[in-house]
Amino acid sequence: MTIDDRIQIAEEKCKQAFYSIDQTARITTERVLDAFGKHRVSARHFAPTEGYGYDDAGRDTLDAVFADALCAEDALVRPQIANGTHAIFLALSGTLRPGDTILSLTGSPYDTLESAIGLNGNMPNALTQFGIRFRSIPFQNDAIDLKKAGEVLQSDSSVRMIYLQRSRGYSWRNALSIEQIKETVSYIRAIRNDVIIFTDNCYGEFTEAEEPTSVGVDLIAGSLIKNCGGGIAPTGGYIAGRKDLVEAVSYRQTVPGCGKEIGSYAASYRPFFEGLFLAPHTVAQCLKSAVLFSALFEDLGYRTLPKIDDHRSDIIQSVMFDTKEELISFMRAVQASAPVDSYVVPEPWNMPGYTDPVIMAAGAFVQGATTELSADAPIREPYIGYMQGALTYEHAVAAAKKVLSTLIAAH
Fold first, then answer.
1. Looking at the DSSP assignment, which residues form a beta bridge with residue 82?
2. 191, 332, 336, 400: which has the fewest Cβ within 10 Å?
3. Distance CA 315, CA 294 (A)
């Protein structure tokens, strides 16, 4: 069987999943478009600003459009936010105080957050250095352990924040669906109304018709070089949710007393508006690419998560390999399929913020933009590769040919 035959067979299996993805993209595109119309976006909002940034119409309108697109009361959208980890750290440090406890219901946070919280190392300004504690409850049979969460909430009055990581991180689990988040919020609210429910929304935006803020989550955060940037935004991050909480975070992002009222940007805001407009379509391309790779790898006998017809709530496709060598070969084939730096040969290395050597394939126009075809993995057992992105489905098909050729030849 040729590789073209394999792809054709896989695409037939994926038709229903593709249809469902397209339907979601139509719903979310309409919501984004409504937000643009409501706030009367025009060319004047793209203009750069300088100095203090007082009365920056582009910045303020971008906040308002993002808030509506993400079903939130308010949003803080800034190119000065370096990445998703930075956005999450701002959300935590801007709303928590000494003596507060974060209770994670999704186990340990993503690797880069462990240092920021203070769970490993002794980094200056980690949350634990300011008397903020972190507790976590592991998944029970791949689901949030609500019973245990209820027990902790009733016994520990210091819990100020419930922490949910929507995406899988470097774990072999599906992303949290909006339905699961809704169930969790309802359970928590029946016990305590005084806690902030926060969701790390990275990789999850626009994968479903609703966002966590639609179902009672108080605050979300994410990166603009992932889903919300549509493959166009060159940098940045966002925090969105309850107005009072977003205001508190803005005082951490700039300075108390000024908050969202200051902060200029000397380049054009156009890529952020355009990226948000494209985001639902771009996310759909990423999801279709992930479904295709799931079908192809499953056909080759590899374990995949999610499977073809599984519900998806992030853009990531996990593939479990038998050996470290297979994993590295996969990463190198993805890199060789990139439009940028295709000649580069990825090697595992000790990246800042990670506990294990990590290998990354990321030949992207925007460094680290995971809506562009990319993959990464910690070098540890079990050997799982995490693939995400593809600005166009056609790119994913071309990459699949190269990846399959490499792996089949290795066998």
1. none
2. 191
3. 12
DSSP string, 229-298: GTTT--S-EEEEE-HHHHHHHHHHHS-TTTGGG----SS-SHHHHHHHHHHHHHHHHHHHHHHHHHHHHH
Contact residues for 145 (Cβ-Cβ < 8 A; gap 6+): 105, 137, 138, 139
pTM: 0.96
Tell me: pLDDT of 19 over 90.
yes
Instruction: Work out the average pLDDT over 90-100.
Output: 98
Amino acid (1-letter code) at residue 122: N
For residue 70, the SS3 value is: coil
What is the token pair recorded at 401? 């040919």
Sorted by sequence, the CB contacts under 8 Å of residue 113 that are 6+ apart come out as: 85, 88, 89
DSSP codes of every residue in 369-390: -TTSSEEEEESSSSEEEEEE--
**Residue 161 DSSP SS3:** strand
**301-333 confidence digits (pLDDT tens):** 999 999 999 999 999 999 999 999 999 999 999
The percentage of the chain sitting over the pLDDT mark of 70, rounded to a whole number, equals 100
Q: Which helix (H) or strand (E) holds 160?
A: strand 159-165
